[in-house]
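Hey, sorry to bother you again with one of my protein questions. A protein chain has come my way and I'm curious about its shape. It would help a lot if you went through both lines with me. I owe you a coffee for this, so here goes:
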Amino acid sequence: MGLISKLAWRNIFRQKRRTILTIMTMTGGFVLSSLSIGWMDGSYSGMILFFTNHQTGQVQVHKSGYLDNPSIYDTVNDYITVGEQIETVDGVRTWAPRIYVGALLASREEGASEGIFSNSAAASIIGIDPVMEENATGFSSQITDGEMLTASAADSSLRATGMILLGKELALTLNVSVGDSLILFSQAADGSGADRKYMVRGIVSTGNTEVDRTTCYLTLADTQLLFALDNRVHEIAVMTTSLKEVDRVAAEVTLVTNSLGLSTASWKVFAREFYAGMKGDETQLKIMLGIIIGVAALGVLNTILMMVLERRREFGVMKAIGTKPKSIVRMIVLEANVMGLVSIVIGSILSTIGLLILSKHGMILDPPLDYGGFVFREMVASITPACYWIPSVCIMITASVVSLIPALKAAHTDAAKSLRTV
Protein backbone atom coordinates (compact mmCIF):
# COMPACT_ATOMS: atom_id res chain seq x y z
CA MET A 1 0.00 0.00 0.00
CA GLY A 2 1.47 3.38 -1.03
CA LEU A 3 1.90 6.38 1.23
CA ILE A 4 -1.09 8.22 -0.27
CA SER A 5 -3.30 5.16 0.26
CA LYS A 6 -2.15 4.85 3.88
CA LEU A 7 -2.89 8.53 4.50
CA ALA A 8 -6.34 8.19 2.91
CA TRP A 9 -7.15 5.15 5.07
CA ARG A 10 -5.97 6.94 8.22
CA ASN A 11 -7.91 10.09 7.44
CA ILE A 12 -11.17 8.17 7.13
CA PHE A 13 -11.03 7.27 10.83
CA ARG A 14 -9.90 10.67 12.10
CA GLN A 15 -13.44 12.07 12.19
CA LYS A 16 -15.51 8.98 12.89
CA ARG A 17 -18.84 10.81 13.20
CA ARG A 18 -18.40 12.60 9.89
CA THR A 19 -17.29 9.38 8.20
CA ILE A 20 -20.29 7.49 9.56
CA LEU A 21 -22.61 10.28 8.43
CA THR A 22 -21.15 10.20 4.91
CA ILE A 23 -21.41 6.41 4.70
CA MET A 24 -25.00 6.53 6.00
CA THR A 25 -25.90 9.11 3.33
CA MET A 26 -24.42 6.96 0.56
CA THR A 27 -25.98 3.80 2.00
CA GLY A 28 -29.39 5.44 2.15
CA GLY A 29 -29.12 6.44 -1.50
CA PHE A 30 -28.03 2.92 -2.43
CA VAL A 31 -30.87 1.22 -0.55
CA LEU A 32 -33.57 3.56 -1.88
CA SER A 33 -32.28 3.16 -5.43
CA SER A 34 -31.99 -0.62 -5.16
CA LEU A 35 -35.47 -1.07 -3.70
CA SER A 36 -36.96 1.26 -6.32
CA ILE A 37 -35.34 -0.68 -9.18
CA GLY A 38 -36.41 -4.03 -7.72
CA TRP A 39 -39.94 -2.74 -7.16
CA MET A 40 -40.10 -1.33 -10.70
CA ASP A 41 -38.78 -4.52 -12.33
CA GLY A 42 -41.00 -6.79 -10.26
CA SER A 43 -44.16 -4.71 -10.64
CA TYR A 44 -43.77 -4.12 -14.38
CA SER A 45 -42.80 -7.73 -15.05
CA GLY A 46 -45.89 -8.81 -13.13
CA MET A 47 -48.07 -6.46 -15.16
CA ILE A 48 -46.60 -7.62 -18.45
CA LEU A 49 -46.96 -11.30 -17.53
CA PHE A 50 -50.55 -10.79 -16.37
CA PHE A 51 -51.40 -8.89 -19.53
CA THR A 52 -49.70 -11.25 -21.97
CA ASN A 53 -50.18 -14.61 -20.25
CA HIS A 54 -53.91 -14.13 -19.68
CA GLN A 55 -54.81 -12.13 -22.77
CA THR A 56 -52.62 -11.43 -25.74
CA GLY A 57 -49.60 -13.74 -25.65
CA GLN A 58 -46.06 -12.39 -25.86
CA VAL A 59 -45.88 -12.71 -29.67
CA GLN A 60 -48.65 -12.71 -32.29
CA VAL A 61 -48.75 -13.86 -35.91
CA HIS A 62 -51.26 -12.37 -38.38
CA LYS A 63 -51.79 -11.87 -42.08
CA SER A 64 -49.62 -8.94 -43.17
CA GLY A 65 -51.43 -5.65 -42.53
CA TYR A 66 -54.04 -7.15 -40.19
CA LEU A 67 -52.95 -5.16 -37.12
CA ASP A 68 -53.23 -1.86 -38.99
CA ASN A 69 -56.64 -2.63 -40.48
CA PRO A 70 -58.31 -5.74 -39.02
CA SER A 71 -60.63 -7.51 -41.47
CA ILE A 72 -62.53 -10.78 -41.40
CA TYR A 73 -60.93 -11.61 -44.75
CA ASP A 74 -57.28 -11.28 -43.63
CA THR A 75 -56.67 -14.76 -42.31
CA VAL A 76 -53.90 -17.22 -41.54
CA ASN A 77 -54.55 -20.25 -43.75
CA ASP A 78 -53.82 -23.80 -42.59
CA TYR A 79 -53.07 -22.49 -39.11
CA ILE A 80 -52.20 -25.91 -37.67
CA THR A 81 -49.22 -26.30 -40.02
CA VAL A 82 -48.08 -22.74 -39.27
CA GLY A 83 -48.43 -23.35 -35.54
CA GLU A 84 -46.39 -26.53 -35.71
CA GLN A 85 -43.59 -24.64 -37.49
CA ILE A 86 -43.70 -21.90 -34.84
CA GLU A 87 -43.53 -24.52 -32.10
CA THR A 88 -40.10 -25.63 -33.36
CA VAL A 89 -38.59 -22.23 -32.47
CA ASP A 90 -36.50 -22.37 -29.31
CA GLY A 91 -38.14 -20.37 -26.52
CA VAL A 92 -41.74 -20.99 -27.64
CA ARG A 93 -43.76 -22.55 -24.81
CA THR A 94 -47.08 -23.00 -26.63
CA TRP A 95 -49.46 -21.29 -29.05
CA ALA A 96 -53.19 -20.79 -29.53
CA PRO A 97 -55.30 -19.88 -32.61
CA ARG A 98 -57.99 -17.20 -32.45
CA ILE A 99 -60.69 -15.66 -34.64
CA TYR A 100 -61.98 -12.08 -34.24
CA VAL A 101 -65.34 -11.00 -35.67
CA GLY A 102 -68.08 -8.56 -34.77
CA ALA A 103 -71.75 -9.26 -34.10
CA LEU A 104 -74.94 -8.03 -32.47
CA LEU A 105 -76.22 -9.93 -29.44
CA ALA A 106 -79.85 -9.69 -28.38
CA SER A 107 -81.79 -11.13 -25.45
CA ARG A 108 -85.41 -11.03 -24.35
CA GLU A 109 -86.97 -10.77 -20.93
CA GLU A 110 -88.71 -13.86 -19.56
CA GLY A 111 -92.28 -13.95 -20.80
CA ALA A 112 -91.66 -11.51 -23.66
CA SER A 113 -93.35 -12.14 -27.01
CA GLU A 114 -91.46 -14.16 -29.62
CA GLY A 115 -89.28 -11.91 -31.74
CA ILE A 116 -89.33 -9.04 -29.25
CA PHE A 117 -85.85 -8.34 -27.84
CA SER A 118 -85.53 -6.13 -24.79
CA ASN A 119 -81.74 -5.91 -24.62
CA SER A 120 -79.04 -5.78 -27.27
CA ALA A 121 -75.37 -4.93 -27.55
CA ALA A 122 -72.62 -4.87 -30.16
CA ALA A 123 -69.97 -7.42 -29.29
CA SER A 124 -66.54 -8.56 -30.34
CA ILE A 125 -66.51 -12.34 -30.78
CA ILE A 126 -63.32 -14.24 -30.05
CA GLY A 127 -63.24 -17.79 -31.37
CA ILE A 128 -60.94 -19.98 -29.28
CA ASP A 129 -59.88 -23.58 -29.21
CA PRO A 130 -60.85 -24.50 -25.61
CA VAL A 131 -58.01 -26.97 -25.06
CA MET A 132 -55.24 -24.94 -26.69
CA GLU A 133 -56.41 -21.69 -25.08
CA GLU A 134 -56.46 -23.36 -21.67
CA ASN A 135 -52.89 -24.61 -22.16
CA ALA A 136 -51.73 -21.18 -23.32
CA THR A 137 -53.52 -18.76 -21.00
CA GLY A 138 -55.28 -20.82 -18.34
CA PHE A 139 -58.49 -19.30 -19.66
CA SER A 140 -60.81 -21.18 -17.28
CA SER A 141 -59.35 -19.25 -14.32
CA GLN A 142 -61.08 -16.14 -15.69
CA ILE A 143 -64.54 -17.76 -15.59
CA THR A 144 -66.30 -16.46 -12.48
CA ASP A 145 -69.59 -18.28 -13.05
CA GLY A 146 -70.47 -21.30 -15.16
CA GLU A 147 -68.12 -23.56 -17.07
CA MET A 148 -65.50 -23.56 -19.83
CA LEU A 149 -66.53 -24.07 -23.44
CA THR A 150 -66.43 -27.63 -24.79
CA ALA A 151 -67.16 -29.22 -28.16
CA SER A 152 -70.87 -29.11 -29.02
CA ALA A 153 -73.30 -29.82 -31.86
CA ALA A 154 -72.85 -26.20 -33.03
CA ASP A 155 -69.30 -27.07 -34.09
CA SER A 156 -70.69 -29.10 -37.00
CA SER A 157 -74.30 -27.98 -37.53
CA LEU A 158 -75.62 -24.50 -38.27
CA ARG A 159 -79.03 -25.50 -36.89
CA ALA A 160 -77.77 -26.47 -33.43
CA THR A 161 -77.84 -24.20 -30.38
CA GLY A 162 -74.34 -23.05 -29.50
CA MET A 163 -72.55 -22.33 -26.23
CA ILE A 164 -71.21 -18.86 -25.48
CA LEU A 165 -69.16 -17.16 -22.78
CA LEU A 166 -69.91 -13.50 -22.01
CA GLY A 167 -67.77 -10.81 -20.47
CA LYS A 168 -69.06 -9.83 -17.04
CA GLU A 169 -70.14 -6.30 -18.02
CA LEU A 170 -71.60 -7.52 -21.32
CA ALA A 171 -73.79 -10.01 -19.43
CA LEU A 172 -75.06 -7.16 -17.24
CA THR A 173 -75.87 -5.08 -20.33
CA LEU A 174 -77.85 -7.95 -21.86
CA ASN A 175 -79.35 -8.83 -18.46
CA VAL A 176 -78.55 -12.53 -18.83
CA SER A 177 -76.89 -15.12 -16.63
CA VAL A 178 -75.65 -18.69 -16.95
CA GLY A 179 -78.31 -20.88 -18.59
CA ASP A 180 -80.12 -18.01 -20.35
CA SER A 181 -80.46 -17.81 -24.13
CA LEU A 182 -79.65 -15.07 -26.61
CA ILE A 183 -79.47 -14.55 -30.36
CA LEU A 184 -76.36 -13.63 -32.36
CA PHE A 185 -76.69 -11.64 -35.61
CA SER A 186 -73.80 -11.06 -38.02
CA GLN A 187 -72.52 -11.69 -41.55
CA ALA A 188 -70.21 -14.48 -42.65
CA ALA A 189 -67.09 -14.08 -44.79
CA ASP A 190 -68.95 -15.39 -47.85
CA GLY A 191 -71.70 -12.77 -47.49
CA SER A 192 -74.32 -15.08 -46.02
CA GLY A 193 -76.08 -14.42 -42.74
CA ALA A 194 -74.40 -15.63 -39.55
CA ASP A 195 -77.31 -15.99 -37.11
CA ARG A 196 -77.62 -18.50 -34.31
CA LYS A 197 -79.20 -19.10 -30.94
CA TYR A 198 -76.81 -19.49 -28.01
CA MET A 199 -77.03 -20.54 -24.41
CA VAL A 200 -74.83 -18.70 -21.91
CA ARG A 201 -72.41 -21.28 -20.54
CA GLY A 202 -70.28 -18.97 -18.38
CA ILE A 203 -69.34 -15.44 -17.33
CA VAL A 204 -65.77 -14.20 -17.86
CA SER A 205 -63.87 -11.53 -15.91
CA THR A 206 -60.49 -10.76 -17.48
CA GLY A 207 -59.61 -7.92 -15.13
CA ASN A 208 -60.15 -5.39 -17.93
CA THR A 209 -63.60 -3.84 -17.65
CA GLU A 210 -63.44 -2.38 -21.17
CA VAL A 211 -62.79 -5.80 -22.67
CA ASP A 212 -65.45 -7.48 -20.54
CA ARG A 213 -68.00 -4.89 -21.63
CA THR A 214 -67.75 -5.84 -25.31
CA THR A 215 -66.35 -9.36 -25.60
CA CYS A 216 -67.83 -12.84 -25.86
CA TYR A 217 -66.26 -16.21 -26.68
CA LEU A 218 -67.24 -19.12 -28.95
CA THR A 219 -65.40 -22.32 -29.77
CA LEU A 220 -63.04 -22.05 -32.74
CA ALA A 221 -64.90 -24.75 -34.71
CA ASP A 222 -68.26 -23.04 -34.08
CA THR A 223 -66.88 -19.67 -35.23
CA GLN A 224 -65.28 -21.14 -38.37
CA LEU A 225 -68.53 -22.85 -39.35
CA LEU A 226 -70.80 -19.90 -38.54
CA PHE A 227 -68.64 -17.32 -40.35
CA ALA A 228 -67.59 -19.56 -43.26
CA LEU A 229 -63.89 -19.38 -42.41
CA ASP A 230 -63.10 -23.06 -43.08
CA ASN A 231 -59.64 -23.87 -41.68
CA ARG A 232 -58.62 -20.24 -41.24
CA VAL A 233 -57.95 -18.01 -38.21
CA HIS A 234 -57.01 -14.36 -37.71
CA GLU A 235 -54.30 -14.77 -35.10
CA ILE A 236 -51.83 -17.19 -33.61
CA ALA A 237 -50.91 -16.12 -30.09
CA VAL A 238 -47.47 -17.38 -29.06
CA MET A 239 -46.38 -17.87 -25.45
CA THR A 240 -42.66 -17.70 -24.70
CA THR A 241 -40.77 -19.37 -21.88
CA SER A 242 -39.51 -16.00 -20.59
CA LEU A 243 -40.08 -12.29 -21.14
CA LYS A 244 -36.36 -11.96 -21.86
CA GLU A 245 -36.81 -14.27 -24.84
CA VAL A 246 -39.61 -12.26 -26.50
CA ASP A 247 -37.55 -10.17 -28.93
CA ARG A 248 -35.41 -13.11 -30.03
CA VAL A 249 -38.42 -15.41 -30.41
CA ALA A 250 -40.29 -12.75 -32.41
CA ALA A 251 -37.31 -12.41 -34.76
CA GLU A 252 -37.02 -16.18 -35.28
CA VAL A 253 -40.77 -16.63 -35.77
CA THR A 254 -40.59 -13.87 -38.40
CA LEU A 255 -38.07 -15.97 -40.34
CA VAL A 256 -40.49 -18.91 -40.23
CA THR A 257 -43.62 -17.00 -41.29
CA ASN A 258 -42.36 -14.31 -43.68
CA SER A 259 -42.46 -16.58 -46.72
CA LEU A 260 -46.14 -17.31 -45.97
CA GLY A 261 -47.20 -13.66 -46.22
CA LEU A 262 -47.60 -13.40 -42.47
CA SER A 263 -46.32 -10.76 -40.06
CA THR A 264 -45.00 -11.23 -36.53
CA ALA A 265 -45.20 -8.70 -33.70
CA SER A 266 -44.19 -8.74 -30.04
CA TRP A 267 -46.41 -7.37 -27.29
CA LYS A 268 -44.48 -4.07 -27.49
CA VAL A 269 -45.97 -3.56 -30.96
CA PHE A 270 -49.54 -4.89 -30.79
CA ALA A 271 -50.00 -3.45 -27.26
CA ARG A 272 -48.11 -0.24 -27.96
CA GLU A 273 -50.37 1.93 -25.77
CA PHE A 274 -49.77 -0.34 -22.78
CA TYR A 275 -46.03 -0.37 -23.56
CA ALA A 276 -45.90 3.42 -23.97
CA GLY A 277 -47.63 3.88 -20.62
CA MET A 278 -45.09 1.65 -18.92
CA LYS A 279 -42.16 3.46 -20.54
CA GLY A 280 -43.61 6.74 -19.30
CA ASP A 281 -43.78 5.38 -15.77
CA GLU A 282 -40.21 4.12 -16.07
CA THR A 283 -39.10 7.62 -17.06
CA GLN A 284 -40.76 9.05 -13.96
CA LEU A 285 -39.00 6.46 -11.80
CA LYS A 286 -35.64 7.29 -13.38
CA ILE A 287 -36.22 10.95 -12.54
CA MET A 288 -37.00 9.93 -8.96
CA LEU A 289 -33.79 7.88 -8.82
CA GLY A 290 -31.88 10.88 -10.11
CA ILE A 291 -33.33 13.01 -7.31
CA ILE A 292 -32.37 10.38 -4.69
CA ILE A 293 -28.81 10.22 -6.00
CA GLY A 294 -28.65 14.02 -6.25
CA VAL A 295 -29.68 14.44 -2.60
CA ALA A 296 -27.09 11.86 -1.54
CA ALA A 297 -24.46 13.63 -3.66
CA LEU A 298 -25.17 16.98 -2.01
CA GLY A 299 -24.81 15.38 1.41
CA VAL A 300 -21.48 13.85 0.48
CA LEU A 301 -20.27 17.11 -1.10
CA ASN A 302 -21.13 19.08 2.04
CA THR A 303 -19.35 16.57 4.28
CA ILE A 304 -16.17 16.45 2.19
CA LEU A 305 -16.08 20.25 1.86
CA MET A 306 -16.21 20.56 5.64
CA MET A 307 -13.46 17.97 5.92
CA VAL A 308 -11.25 19.89 3.49
CA LEU A 309 -11.79 23.20 5.29
CA GLU A 310 -10.84 21.64 8.64
CA ARG A 311 -7.65 20.19 7.19
CA ARG A 312 -6.27 23.33 5.57
CA ARG A 313 -3.17 23.31 7.78
CA GLU A 314 -2.56 19.67 6.98
CA PHE A 315 -2.70 20.36 3.25
CA GLY A 316 -0.46 23.38 3.77
CA VAL A 317 2.16 21.20 5.48
CA MET A 318 1.90 18.62 2.69
CA LYS A 319 2.43 21.34 0.07
CA ALA A 320 5.33 22.78 2.08
CA ILE A 321 7.21 19.47 2.17
CA GLY A 322 6.80 19.05 -1.58
CA THR A 323 3.66 16.96 -2.01
CA LYS A 324 2.38 17.34 -5.54
CA PRO A 325 -1.19 18.66 -6.05
CA LYS A 326 -2.23 15.50 -7.95
CA SER A 327 -1.27 13.40 -4.92
CA ILE A 328 -3.55 15.47 -2.69
CA VAL A 329 -6.38 15.12 -5.22
CA ARG A 330 -5.84 11.36 -5.41
CA MET A 331 -5.85 11.04 -1.62
CA ILE A 332 -9.17 12.87 -1.14
CA VAL A 333 -10.88 11.08 -4.03
CA LEU A 334 -9.59 7.77 -2.66
CA GLU A 335 -11.07 8.59 0.76
CA ALA A 336 -14.48 9.19 -0.81
CA ASN A 337 -14.23 5.99 -2.90
CA VAL A 338 -13.34 3.89 0.16
CA MET A 339 -16.42 5.25 1.96
CA GLY A 340 -18.41 4.54 -1.19
CA LEU A 341 -17.27 0.91 -1.24
CA VAL A 342 -18.20 0.48 2.43
CA SER A 343 -21.64 1.97 1.77
CA ILE A 344 -22.12 -0.42 -1.18
CA VAL A 345 -21.38 -3.45 1.01
CA ILE A 346 -23.73 -2.29 3.77
CA GLY A 347 -26.34 -1.14 1.27
CA SER A 348 -26.26 -4.49 -0.56
CA ILE A 349 -26.97 -6.36 2.67
CA LEU A 350 -29.85 -4.06 3.66
CA SER A 351 -31.25 -4.01 0.11
CA THR A 352 -31.21 -7.80 -0.12
CA ILE A 353 -33.20 -8.07 3.10
CA GLY A 354 -35.73 -5.50 1.87
CA LEU A 355 -36.02 -7.08 -1.60
CA LEU A 356 -36.50 -10.57 -0.16
CA ILE A 357 -39.38 -9.29 1.97
CA LEU A 358 -40.99 -7.39 -0.92
CA SER A 359 -40.53 -10.29 -3.36
CA LYS A 360 -42.06 -12.81 -0.97
CA HIS A 361 -44.90 -10.82 0.58
CA GLY A 362 -45.32 -7.94 -1.88
CA MET A 363 -47.80 -5.21 -1.21
CA ILE A 364 -51.58 -5.48 -1.29
CA LEU A 365 -53.06 -2.53 -3.17
CA ASP A 366 -56.16 -1.10 -1.54
CA PRO A 367 -57.85 0.19 -3.57
CA PRO A 368 -56.57 -1.93 -6.50
CA LEU A 369 -54.57 -0.24 -9.26
CA ASP A 370 -56.38 0.21 -12.57
CA TYR A 371 -53.63 0.25 -15.20
CA GLY A 372 -54.72 0.43 -18.83
CA GLY A 373 -58.05 -1.15 -17.95
CA PHE A 374 -56.45 -4.04 -16.05
CA VAL A 375 -56.93 -4.22 -12.29
CA PHE A 376 -53.90 -5.21 -10.20
CA ARG A 377 -54.41 -6.07 -6.54
CA GLU A 378 -50.87 -6.98 -5.55
CA MET A 379 -47.39 -5.82 -6.48
CA VAL A 380 -44.16 -7.68 -5.73
CA ALA A 381 -40.50 -6.80 -6.19
CA SER A 382 -37.91 -8.88 -8.03
CA ILE A 383 -34.22 -9.33 -7.30
CA THR A 384 -32.13 -8.70 -10.41
CA PRO A 385 -28.47 -7.76 -11.03
CA ALA A 386 -29.65 -4.24 -11.90
CA CYS A 387 -30.75 -3.79 -8.27
CA TYR A 388 -27.08 -3.87 -7.31
CA TRP A 389 -24.90 -2.75 -10.18
CA ILE A 390 -26.83 0.41 -11.05
CA PRO A 391 -26.73 1.86 -7.49
CA SER A 392 -23.10 0.72 -7.12
CA VAL A 393 -21.99 2.48 -10.29
CA CYS A 394 -23.95 5.59 -9.31
CA ILE A 395 -22.42 5.64 -5.82
CA MET A 396 -18.85 5.29 -7.10
CA ILE A 397 -19.31 7.90 -9.83
CA THR A 398 -21.00 10.25 -7.36
CA ALA A 399 -18.22 9.76 -4.79
CA SER A 400 -15.51 10.42 -7.39
CA VAL A 401 -17.15 13.44 -9.02
CA VAL A 402 -18.39 15.08 -5.82
CA SER A 403 -15.03 14.67 -4.05
CA LEU A 404 -13.15 16.09 -7.04
CA ILE A 405 -14.26 19.69 -6.37
CA PRO A 406 -13.02 19.78 -2.73
CA ALA A 407 -9.92 17.83 -3.79
CA LEU A 408 -8.98 20.45 -6.39
CA LYS A 409 -9.57 23.17 -3.80
CA ALA A 410 -7.26 21.38 -1.36
CA ALA A 411 -4.63 20.79 -4.04
CA HIS A 412 -4.38 24.52 -4.71
CA THR A 413 -3.99 25.44 -1.06
CA ASP A 414 -1.48 28.24 -0.44
CA ALA A 415 1.07 26.61 1.91
CA ALA A 416 2.32 29.83 3.57
CA LYS A 417 -1.17 31.23 4.12
CA SER A 418 -2.49 27.94 5.49
CA LEU A 419 0.35 27.55 7.97
CA ARG A 420 -0.31 31.05 9.35
CA THR A 421 -3.96 30.14 9.98
CA VAL A 422 -4.68 29.35 13.63
Residues 3-52+275-420 form one domain. The chain has a mean pLDDT of 84. The radius of gyration is 32 Å.
